[in-house]
């Protein structure tokens, strides 16, 4: 999935586009033609000029269209974000104008190349070439406004943060000036501007950090005011789209000191207003600026008001102070744990993995070849066994019972040598070497090895005796 668009080429103005393509045509095609040339050569000369110019414009327009993202293929978060920042319909109309201009220039090129095939003189071919290039230039000049708009969009797209909608995300939201940017600066290395006035953050800022060897992204959203969605500006709508579309753990920040300019009642009301956006998300309410005032120092009515946010399932409240860096990492770690737990639960609820395993399992049923009943054979000893009952004091002792008595799973290891059938029970725990004297022992295993070894020893004794007799006989011969 494409997350950044920093590699989009520069969109020139209409006049610059004309200069680029026409100068290229002048450099890449022949420039000398004389009246004495044959008419076929004159036609080919001007046909090449028109055709090369049309291909140059088409290539440039195609690069512009391919460079910009197709808004219908984007993730819903990026699609709504682009709609808010650039107005989706205006964006589509501008790209459609470029695409239409490309089609028109290709049509003009084909029409005039067809006319040049029947040119009767140098003057007529030259006039047809001028008319073709003039029509192309007129089409390009009409793209003045779309080119200017697309260049502005390109510059802004390159400055957008790289946000992955599917990765582990902490989303920081709340009223303006409640300490969201300060928290992001504390937990990441993001260079976020922090000022003591509202709406310092006017765009989405992203920072990254590691927790339990996993990569997380934290997103600082602009402040939200408690008002209907249709009355929100583009700055606030960025936060709304981020909360609505990103799978994340939402950190809703509150300032009990009310130095942000909004009362506790207004902050609680905003939480309940955007509560529908928290569906299927982990939510952590963060009470910031505890160095000034804590929940315990508030009046009972304010405390009860704050506790109303706990009505949402899964919501927890934590306190922190970004100014003194107090309890900041605990809040971050708690949010990461909630997010990881929620992602695991969501994966367990999904049926895709179960269906994938079931698709790999196939139970084959043999077809009956005759009418005879062939019931499964069960030995009489198995049938006579008493059914296992956990509460029966005389029940059979199973390997599971032995495991439970010796510490349970993870502590007790089954002795696989207990069932070995050996002549001597003491041999069960003998260690059999795999490599002996640099050779694989299993290559020399033989069930008749003992008999062969005894025969070999007898043969050696016999040969030794025969050799000794031969040596005595040889000595006697030498003595004579």
UniProtKB/TrEMBL annotation:
<dbReference type="InterPro" id="IPR012973">
    <property type="entry name" value="NOG_C"/>
</dbReference>
<keyword id="KW-0547">Nucleotide-binding</keyword>
<dbReference type="InterPro" id="IPR006073">
    <property type="entry name" value="GTP-bd"/>
</dbReference>
<dbReference type="InterPro" id="IPR005225">
    <property type="entry name" value="Small_GTP-bd"/>
</dbReference>
<dbReference type="GO" id="GO:0005525">
    <property type="term" value="F:GTP binding"/>
</dbReference>
<protein>
    <recommendedName>
        <fullName>Nucleolar GTP-binding protein 1</fullName>
    </recommendedName>
</protein>
<dbReference type="InterPro" id="IPR010674">
    <property type="entry name" value="NOG1_Rossman_fold_dom"/>
</dbReference>
<dbReference type="InterPro" id="IPR041623">
    <property type="entry name" value="NOG1_N"/>
</dbReference>
<dbReference type="GO" id="GO:1902626">
    <property type="term" value="P:assembly of large subunit precursor of preribosome"/>
</dbReference>
<feature type="domain" description="OBG-type G">
    <location>
        <begin position="168"/>
        <end position="340"/>
    </location>
</feature>
<dbReference type="GO" id="GO:0005730">
    <property type="term" value="C:nucleolus"/>
</dbReference>
<dbReference type="Pfam" id="PF06858">
    <property type="entry name" value="NOG1"/>
</dbReference>
<keyword id="KW-0342">GTP-binding</keyword>
<keyword id="KW-0539">Nucleus</keyword>
<dbReference type="Pfam" id="PF08155">
    <property type="entry name" value="NOGCT"/>
</dbReference>
<keyword id="KW-0690">Ribosome biogenesis</keyword>
<dbReference type="Pfam" id="PF17835">
    <property type="entry name" value="NOG1_N"/>
</dbReference>
<dbReference type="InterPro" id="IPR027417">
    <property type="entry name" value="P-loop_NTPase"/>
</dbReference>
<comment type="function">
    <text>Involved in the biogenesis of the 60S ribosomal subunit.</text>
</comment>
<dbReference type="InterPro" id="IPR031167">
    <property type="entry name" value="G_OBG"/>
</dbReference>
């Amino acid at each position: 999935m494409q997350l950044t668009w920093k590699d989009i080429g520069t969109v020139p103005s209409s006049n610059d586009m004309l200069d680029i393509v026409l100068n290229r045509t002048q450099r890449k095609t022949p420039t000398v033609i004389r009246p004495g040339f044959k008419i076929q050569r004159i036609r080919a000369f001007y046909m090449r000029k028109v055709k090369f110019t049309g291909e140059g414009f088409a290539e440039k327009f195609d690069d512009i269209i391919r460079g910009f993202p197709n808004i219908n293929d984007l993730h819903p978060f990026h699609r709504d974000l682009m709609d808010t920042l650039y107005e989706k319909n205006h964006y589509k109309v501008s790209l459609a104008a470029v695409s239409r201009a490309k089609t028109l220039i290709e049509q003009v090129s084909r029409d005039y190349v067809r006319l040049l095939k029947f040119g009767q003189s140098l003057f007529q071919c030259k006039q047809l070439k001028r008319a073709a290039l003039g029509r192309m230039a007129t089409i390009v000049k009409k793209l003045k406004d779309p080119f200017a708009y697309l260049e502005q969009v390109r510059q802004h797209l390159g400055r957008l943060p790289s946000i992955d909608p599917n990765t582990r995300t902490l989303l920081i939201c709340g009223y303006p000036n409640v300490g969201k940017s300060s928290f992001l600066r504390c937990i990441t290395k993001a260079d976020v501007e922090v000022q003591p006035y509202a709406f310092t953050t006017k765009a989405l800022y992203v920072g990254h950090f590691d927790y339990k060897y996993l990569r997380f992204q934290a997103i600082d959203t602009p402040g939200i005011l408690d008002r209907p969605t249709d009355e929100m500006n583009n700055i606030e709508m960025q936060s709304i789209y981020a909360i609505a579309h990103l799978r994340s753990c939402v950190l809703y920040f509150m300032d009990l000191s009310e130095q942000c300019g909004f009362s506790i009642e207004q902050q609680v009301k905003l939480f309940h207003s955007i509560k529908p956006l928290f569906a299927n998300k982990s939510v952590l309410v963060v009470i910031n600026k505890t160095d000034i005032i804590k929940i315990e120092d508030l009046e009972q009515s304010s405390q009860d008001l704050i506790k109303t946010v706990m009505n949402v399932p899964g919501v927890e409240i934590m306190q922190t102070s970004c100014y003194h860096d107090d309890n900041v990492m605990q809040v971050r770690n708690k949010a990461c744990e909630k997010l990881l737990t929620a992602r695991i639960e969501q994966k367990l609820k999904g049926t895709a993995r179960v269906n994938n395993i079931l698709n790999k399992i196939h139970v084959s049923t043999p077809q009956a070849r005759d009418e005879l009943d062939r019931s499964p054979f069960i030995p009489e000893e198995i049938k006579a066994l008493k059914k296992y009952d956990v509460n029966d004091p005389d029940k059979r002792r199973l390997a599971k019972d032995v495991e439970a008595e010796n510490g349970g799973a993870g502590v007790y290891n089954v002795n696989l040598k207990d069932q070995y059938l050996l002549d001597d029970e003491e041999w069960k725990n003998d260690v059999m070497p795999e490599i002996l004297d640099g050779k694989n022992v299993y290559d020399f295993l033989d069930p008749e090895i003992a008999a062969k070894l005894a025969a070999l020893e007898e043969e050696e004794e016999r040969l030794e005796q025969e050799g000794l007799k031969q040596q005595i006989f040889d000595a006697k011969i030498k003595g004579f």
